[in-house]
Amino acid sequence: MPYAITVHPYTTNDRNEWETFVESSNNGTMFHLHRFLDYHPEGKWNWHHLMFRDGGKLVAVLPGGINNNGAFWSPMGASYGSICTQDISFELTLAIVDAFIVYCKNAGIRDAYLIPAPIVYTRNYSQHHEYAMLYRKASFELHYISHAIDLKHGKDFARYFDATARKSVNRILREGEITIRDSEDYATFHEILMENKARHGVLPTHTLDDLLKLRQLMPDKLKLMLVYKGDVAIAGSLLFLANPKVVLCFYNMLRYEYEHLRPIYLVMHETCRWAVENGYEWVDIGVSQDTKDPDPMTPSIGLINFKERFDARGILRSTYHLSIDP
């Protein structure tokens, strides 16, 4: 059937419609929501969010913005973005992509970069969007290798950890020297996170104020766990509950003087256990790049080997580049 897709910029009057659409979509994540993007200070980004309609019906949303070079980026100020839709046909998907290209052309936008969430985030597996962009001659700007744990084994997930991970987890649970529990102590978490990042000469993506604001904006989407030895916090993980299908380990960190206790093994076990109990299908452990290498695509073999101890599988996080002819 023919489609007549119209595109218009988002306004605050559209907020409720946008948020409801994302929450019920096939491929939306918390990063598509304005209540996530609201943690950024006003004026930090040049937002240019778009809405797509077929007649009066909303069929897609696209969070994003314009950078200093005049290029459109989605996401901007988030981890994942690109076009968010319901579980729609390829024909409608292609019509939406074509409408976006026409919009960019009319707006004088010559380059668009879109980073969709990996396929495991789609509630019903579909790569219509990716193929539609490639069909319209998008190129790949960049690939990252990310890793995720498939929770298809349910409560038996730990049986599929490798021997070292199983042995470590069993010892930790048996001896009880370290324990893990939910926490609201973001200050201690961020302090340890800063120590971790300093070892690699970088800063974390979020300040403590950022995390506290995110916690205030979307308490249903964040879960903080800390590992304790006695009363001392020695490790932890901040989980982003990205959508009903995927738990994202956004930050895993530890105090390295306690590394011999293997607290991250406990973190991974508890994350998977909690995710299974709450109906999630995947745990995304994040990208596995060697950040010190000048080539941003260089994999961190040691990090990948560690993630594979927990039966994690490689998934692509790709950036699509549409070059728009004038």
What does the model show?
There is one protein chain. With 326 residues, the chain is of the alpha+beta class. The protein has nine helices and 13 strands. The strands form two sheets. Strands 4-5-6-13-7-12-11-10-9-8 form a ten-stranded mixed beta sheet, sandwiched between helices. A three-stranded antiparallel beta sheet has the order 1-2-3. It starts with a strand and ends with a strand.
What is the helix fraction of residues, given as a range? 25-40%
Low-confidence stretches are: none
| Quaternary state of the chains | single chain
Distance between the termini: 29 Å
Number of domains: 2
Rg, Cα atoms, Å = 21 Å
Number of strands: 13
Tell me what the CATH architecture of the largest domain is: 3-Layer(aba) Sandwich
Distinct helical segment count: 9
Strand content: 25-35%
Characteristic terms for this protein:
alpha+beta; 326 residues; 2 domains; Aminopeptidase; 10-stranded mixed beta sheet; 3-stranded antiparallel beta sheet; 30% helix; single chain
Write the layout of secondary structure elements.
Layout: E1 5-9, H1 15-23, H2 34-37, E2 50-54, E3 57-62, E4 65-66, E5 72-74, H3 90-107, E6 111-114, H4 128-135, E7 139-150, H5 163-175, E8 179-182, H6 186-198, H7 208-217, E9 222-229, E10 232-241, E11 246-254, H8 263-277, E12 282-287, H9 301-308, E13 312-323
Parallel strand pairs: 5-6, 11-12
Antiparallel strand pairs: 1-2, 2-3, 4-5, 6-13, 7-12, 7-13, 8-9, 9-10, 10-11
Helix pairs in contact: 3-4, 5-8
